[in-house]
Sequence to fold (280 residues):
Amino acid sequence: MKKSRENSYGKNLLTDIVTFPVPISLGDFNETININSVDYPKEKLLKQELLFKSNGLDRGAGLKKLNEAYTDLGFPKYSEKQIRNSEHLIIFASLAAKQFNPKKILEIGTYIGHSSCILATLFPASEVVTIDLKDDDENFKEFYNRKDPAKMAKFLNTRNKFLNTRSNIKFLQENSLFLTRRTEFKDQFDLIWIDGAHGYPVVCADIINSVSLANPETIILCDDVYKNNIKNDVMYRSIASWETIEELRKIGIISSDYFLKRLGIHTEDKFVAYITLNKE
Fold:
């Protein structure tokens, strides 16, 4: 993989947002995760590897491919001690390792641009279209403690660094609900990553819009799926993704599998959905 100016600030990107050592802040949740070990329980790892295999993927090959991309970017090797890392990145890399070659990728929810950067590196021949709210949108300011001008400036600086690491990233600043009117996107995306607001009504619309925009071979992944969650909100935690995906599955529009989001941390209730369209 060709190296270029893109490595010039890669080593500092993750630590701009992630604080070491633990505990790791989870934004507006006002709680922390203390990670003493990233050793994976064998049963959990085996179950995850079998799920990869059942979808034609190799987790080991994906992890190797991801670490190659991280080396190219100047990032440390994959570790769950870095809060931005989760199994969704290994899924992306597993697709790249099996020569899955999407022409265009859609990401709903840019955040700091970490996943955008990884996708653009794993799939250098693809155009990565990433969508997030405008910087002056009130919801954008409200979520993840961005009302403070200093925090906002730091956030935007880090995001822009990530997005500028690769020339095949296209950043659109608009509400993802406008995808309903983006008829020019129909059948354009071979891979879609849903990681915007996680509650009703937005994530439901994001999932429906993604299915509508997909071509018959599109793979859709959805982050932070809770199957059981007593406390629901519009942004961070909700069963909305689960309920929407399951309704689409029940009527035969899609097939879905649920990968554990992380293996070494106690997040058994948190998943990454892997969605494919059923033939009509």
